[in-house]
Amino acid sequence: MNETIKNQLNHRTIREFKDEILDQSVINNLLDVANMAPTSNGMQFCTIIEVTDQNLKDELAKNGLQEYMARAPHLWIFIVDLFRNYNIAKENGQENDEMLGFDRFIQGMTDCIIAAQNVTIAAESLGLGVNYFGNIHNDTKNVIKLLNLPSLTYPAVGLGFGIPNQEPQIKPRMDITLKAFENSYKVYENYNQTIAEYDKEMTTYYDLRDANRRVDSFSAQIPKKQGTPIANRNKMFETLLNQGFKIDIK
């Protein structure tokens, strides 16, 4: 097993970092890694905002309801960006609404996630810690305002990274046989029975972990996390329309 795979299998979310800024050469390397990530049709629909202003970090953390976001030494927001290409086409008199469609948005979102994961793998290979921030979707309209994003752009995901100041336990994952099938989707007759051992493993994990110990399980988290609305997230579609994306619902 090579070192890259070892690092990936050892992945854990790092929420606390040493108060140290990385050398600019490291940042440049990570930007290059993001830039060379696969991109749909070569259209490069991803832009990165490096957040260095502490006041802005504080506002983003408040928006996302995760105070430790403000303590990330390096915070990048990956942006779906149709604005750049649309304006290139417009300057050449070739713009059209097809360039703003929902499928293009999905391509941009995919570009952003792939680029962010490229950076994650590279950062962890350097011994750095990483934390994904999906909390920017708590109020994307506000994030757009905070980052001064133009039309035809949309925040996809945040990524905080730096030198780890903690070593949390690895969070158990559901057995891969429940998530990887051959040729077609496999439906189980009783899912609670199927994940019973995983539920026990997760209960043990939460009971023994160093921080925020509690009695919990995966099945108990589903209604709490997946079944509970987060304020303003139901406005994401509305925000997309306000940003100028052409969403055809016919």
- Cα(first) to Cα(last) distance is 50 Å
Largest sheet: 4 strands, antiparallel
Q: What is the rounded Rg?
A: 20 Å
The DSSP helix count reads 10
Q: In what order do the strands lie side by side in the largest sheet?
A: 1-2-4-3
Q: Helices, strands, pairings?
A:
Blueprint: H1 3-9, H2 24-35, E1 46-51, H3 54-64, E2 74-81, H4 83-91, H5 102-125, E3 129-133, H6 140-146, E4 153-162, H7 191-194, H8 196-208, H9 218-226, H10 236-242
Antiparallel strand pairs: 1-2, 2-4, 3-4
Helix pairs in contact: 2-5
Protein name: Nitroreductase family protein
InterPro entries: Flavin_OxRdtase_Frp, Nitroreductase, Nitroreductase-like
Family: Belongs to the flavin oxidoreductase frp family.
Please tag this protein with its features.
single chain; about 250 residues; alpha+beta; four-stranded antiparallel sheet; 10 helices; about 40% helix; globular
Structural notes for this entry:
This protein is α+β, with helices and mostly antiparallel strands and 250 residues long. The chain is 41% helix and 12% strand. It is built from ten helices and four strands. The chain has helices at 3-9, 24-35, 54-64, 83-91, 102-125, 140-146, 191-194, 196-208, 218-226, 236-242; strands spanning 46-51, 74-81, 129-133, 153-162. Keywords: Flavoprotein, FMN, NADP, Oxidoreductase. InterPro entries: Flavin_OxRdtase_Frp, Nitroreductase, Nitroreductase-like. This is Nitroreductase family protein.
Task: Summarize it.
The chain has 250 residues and is of the alpha+beta class. The protein is 41% helix and 12% strand. It has a four-stranded antiparallel sheet with strand order 1-2-4-3, with helices on both faces.
